[in-house]
Here is the input.
Amino acid sequence: MAESAGHKIAKQSRTMDEKTREILLNAFVMNTVGHQSPGLWAHPRDQSDRYADVEYWKELARLFERGRFDGVFFADVLGVYDVYGGSVDAALRHAVQVPVNDPMLLVPVMADVTEHLGFGVTGTLSYEPPYPFARRMSTLDHLTQGRVGWNIVTGYLDSAAKAMGLARQYGHDRRYDVAEEYMQVVYKLWEGSWEPGAVRRDRAARVFADPAKVHRVRHKGEFYTLDAIHICEPSPQRTPVLYQAGASGRGREFAAAHAECVFINGPFTRVVAPYVADIRARAVRLGRAADDIKIFTLATVIVGRDAAEARAKYDEYRGFVDLEASLTLFSGWTGVDFSKYRLDEPLRHVETDAMRSALEAFTSADPDRVWTVRELALHVGIGGRGPVIVGSPGQVADELEHWVDATGIDGFNLAYAVTPESFVDFVDLVVPELQRRGRLKREYRKGTLREKLSGASSPHLPPTHPGARYRAGEA
Here is the structure.
């Protein structure tokens, strides 16, 4: 199968004794129907319509931990995809990420049935003041014993801005101005309000916390004003592990400064590799080490016991792809109304204030390939913007290794075609093969999510991270 079709079967296996590094894995999910494969919710074996059933999420959590996944990466949106045709009708008809429930409420449920699984939760900073948000994340970090991360997003839907009482969202780069100040405020709350040792829990002296070691955060900036202590005592990580998913130039600069994990998208290695190199180079220029940032890319795996079985599954799934649903999703991502395009019309780059990298990945970032709107819709229909890897366990493992070696990524956010089937197949068939090759852990490391991902001996932000500058007693 050709790479240009968005899925590949590698032809050569790697030797068992090759010295390689561990691949990190997140399950990429959303508290909704269908998620990245619009239309496939109608498949008779898909269970994504159980998204409101707590037992469904418990079952997934146990499965991911059995497969030694590092975490669950929860996508989220506050608005609806109403760009296609200027209406939300297509999104509602095809369940294009609507209805969608709050992902944060799933974290304690899934943490309760697991011991090691991490949780990266998308939180849109544009529409919530930093003070209550900081409390929510500290609470989750306490309840999970240090297994929570925050995917920092600024939003990309005008429908979300309107839902929050605004005429429209800020422009793309202006949203990052807001984000920079937001980070200052939450760092001050998480790192600077409570000193180490502030919590005494001294029953004999009847002193729970030492007031001299708890400091007010006073901030007056362009977007936020605050005068308060952080209302939570320090959680295991203080600052949650920081994820970021912006791949525009401004997004990469923000990621290089703040992110510990970055999520990028692209259909081919030649699209993803330059983003990876650029983010790492920017991090070094800002005084961080290149490997301070773990980079994940999106992939969807369709695996069978052999190549023929995998191809049969893929062909079956393709029969449920809904072109209108795919274009509804992609229109929302990009801010471009694809109902106005003919299916056989070439795809062109258009500058918008939505998710710029979504369109760039299929146009300016990949000038050697000209996509039609139909080809785009078919590609997005299974797994969204990333590659679809189809094959036997050995062939899938070959291709995952190829992506890591060719791009410099650290791991994958694995989306599903059909849930839980796609994840069950991966855990039962691909995980043992990766473990045999030494590419995937057999047991979890001890510690918090930050310690597990980085191998560090401390659960807190490293000294090279800008958030560490706000630490009480060290500023």
In short: Residues 172-192 form the longest helix (21 residues). Confidence is low (pLDDT under 50) at residues 1-18. The longest strand covers residues 294-303. The chain has 15 helices and 14 strands.
